[in-house]
Fold this sequence. Notes:
Elements: H1 9-16, H2 18-21, E1 26-31, E2 36-39, H3 41-46, H4 58-65, H5 69-81, E3 84-94, E4 97-108, E5 118-125, H6 127-141, H7 147-167, H8 170-177, E6 187-199, H9 202-208, H10 211-231, E7 235-240, E8 243-248, H11 256-283, E9 292-307, E10 312-317, H12 319-330, E11 335-339, H13 340-346, E12 350-358, E13 367-375, E14 388-390, E15 393-395, H14 404-430
Parallel strand pairs: 9-11
Antiparallel strand pairs: 1-2, 1-5, 3-4, 4-5, 6-8, 6-9, 7-8, 9-10, 11-13, 12-13, 14-15
Amino acid sequence: MKIEDFFNQQNIIDLSFFNFSNAITACYYAKENLEVVKVNDNFLSFFPILGNVNNVYFPDVLEQIGLPGKQIEQFVRDINEKGKVLIPEVRISINDEERVYSLLSTRTKNDSFTYLNGIQGQFVDRTVEFNLRKERQNLLEEKIRDREIIEDKSRQLENLAKRLAKYLSPQIYQSVFANEDGVEQKHARKNLTIFLSDIVKFTDLADTLEPERLAAVINSYLSEMSAIAIECGGTIDKFIGDAVLIFFGDPETEGEEEDALKCAEMAIRMMKRVGELNKHWKKLGVVNGMKVRMGISTGFCTVGNFGSDLRLDYTVLGSPVNLAARLQTIAEENTILIDGYTKDLINSHVNTKYLEDITPKGFARPIPLYRLNDFKSGDHRDRRKNLTHVGKRVEVSVLDSSNIHAAIEELKLIQEGFERDYAELNDKSKS
């Protein structure tokens, strides 16, 4: 008896189609003979002329929505001979409006579930992108000298391409664009500093706020936290609802001490930024303000691609991840808890307070627990705010906006020094 005999066939197909069901593209799955098994809601919304397309021969569907015969022939030929299809430009008229799509498809293979051997693909709406390209081409042909407009259009195209890449399923992206049969598995054992945070009583907040306001609050919160994480050199692993998982030490590291210091700097800046934004969030209905709790631990983890044949995540596994989660869970509101190893790495740079030894669930030995307060005056974080003035060159690096006024004052002093030097040089040249 095969493993597939133990599972409900339709349930397995539904599960394998889960990512496509939530995609913003028009996705389909068909048998090896091109008989359509499943489409997502966007497939029908993209092409309102279609009715029920299940159990319909897919080339007939393409003909019904208006694909030219040559492109249908190309689809059938490529999927049969190459096992994959990329038609970058498909022009279809819908309600007297011409739209442009890319059609991507590939054959799937699954040794455990033979009924997943078929064809999956999607239509990507690229109308906006093609219109932007057309506008940019017109500007070039007319030799318009306003480079600012051209650069703006280029940025829009770049941003649009990045957004599209986020919504393409990994297996099709790798198979069609990277021309690979599969994603290479790479894993490593590294000493990482792990950070995990969440919002206190977020469930209550989600139940009381209107969806639009809740989205505005959580999106602004995650955006601010992400910006700080990137500035501090952290690798954002994932968002789990309101929770944020970030790690330091991969793919690049400056040593375990510096990685831990960067993580501490990030957590402190995040905590202060939440306090600064509470006034704004209160206007959106967060009556008591936003309160967060954070946990940080350091130790050896396995980092790399983990997942299934259908979806992979680049993430970390190991006891430090579990410990950071435990610390975050038991932390009081607006508090950062760190383990003993992290404390030992950064102790000469930060102010901490020992709380107690705990034995978290899943751990055999007690772990010393510390509260991270702030950096010691003039150490690490303050060092990064300084201006660098060497000879006639001035380099400005201000990561904390609260220090901007001090930076301006220092620039004024440097300006005055330059002016004095210039005046003295002129006096000497005259004499």
